[in-house]
Amino acid sequence: MKWPSSNAPVRLKVSITSLAFMPFPTYVPFTPKRMFQKFTSMFTMYAMIIPRNLISDSTLVQDAFDLLSANGGRASFADIANSVFCLSHAEAELAAKLIADLIAHDPRFIIEDTHLALNADSPELRPLAEIDFVVLDVEAVTVRSQPAKIIELGAYRLKAGTIIDEFETLINPEVPLPRFIANLTGISDEMLKHAPLFSEIVSSWLDFAGDAVLVAHNSDFDLRLLNREIGRCFPGYRMRNGELCTVDLARRLMRNLDGHNLDALADHFGFEISRRHRAAGDAFATARLFMQLLDQLESHGMRTLAQARDFRATKEARDDGEIKMQLAFGL
Asked: Which residues are catalytic?
């Protein structure tokens, strides 16, 4: 058999589940190099064991989740095929196959005979007092115009208002630290040189986080950083944990304060922050703050995670968090 030249296309029939991710026709030209890359990627994906608290970061999955949320938590395969895949007259078998492949083992969904439903056993409706929380903080570095990279991760697990476990590690960002960051945190290049890479701690971090709701001060920033690093280790996946932001909650609960940064809030509640600008120190302070905010949520009648999540921040608070993310991610 004569192998085609490197530029010659090979006509490869696309599987039925690929229809959602590429336009018709169902035959797509591949060069030998692209075929090798494709099959190498597929082998890596199927050989990889995906932790149970990761879900696909596909926009199609999110579209399906949003559709179900807007329709009482349930929708027919035909409606999903039409809305998510833009297939208005998909056969029932094709629609069912596409949806099953799309959501894979995502625990947020339940497949019924002809419908997809949201899993009712969700933390959203559970009382806040019964939920495990993991309060976290990351320290990060941005070199020149590169996106931020994590240099330290610290977290505390809360159960029934008590800290029951902790997680702390330095992380080698594989880039030199700017002097400003070194002076601010006390972390040196020498310390990071011997620290593990994120890929070496990701499994222990995911085990620690488990199914807990994640809490951070400006959670959009911390969790986007975490999920980007996780996506490098598990391409196409992100953490599925629920989240709460103490900045958002504090700005709604205490609007009269001049500032809502961690220092101002610690001062307001009368506690000091030890090891400021170190991940574990800031995470511990955020945990103490969060316990105070939980009490205030209770006094405002917010008793479930869904109620706390809907207790959203002002536009100014969200804009401030977005500016910080743009600076850190080079957007």
From this structure: 277
**109-111 β-sheet, strand order:** 74-76, 115-118, 109-111
pLDDT exceeds cutoff 50 at 308: yes
Asked if 237 and 57 count as a contact pair (C-beta separation under 8 A), the reply is yes
Helix/strand/coil (H, E, C) string of 295-306? HHHHHCCCCEHH
* Cis-peptide, bond into residue 29, ω within 30° of zero: no
Instruction: Provide the residue ranges of all domains of the chain, joining segments of one domain with +.
Output: 54-121, 128-329
Looking at CATH, the fold of the domain delimited by 54-121 is given as: Arc Repressor Mutant, subunit A (1.10.10)
Q: In whole angstroms, give the CA distance from residue 180 to residue 253.
A: 34
How far apart, in whole angstroms, are the C-alpha atoms of residue 20 and residue 60? 9
Residue-wise pLDDT for 202-233, tens only, equals: 999 999 999 999 999 999 999 999 999 999 99
pLDDT 10s digits, 276-295: 999 999 999 999 999 999 99
Reported CATH class of domain 128-329: alpha beta
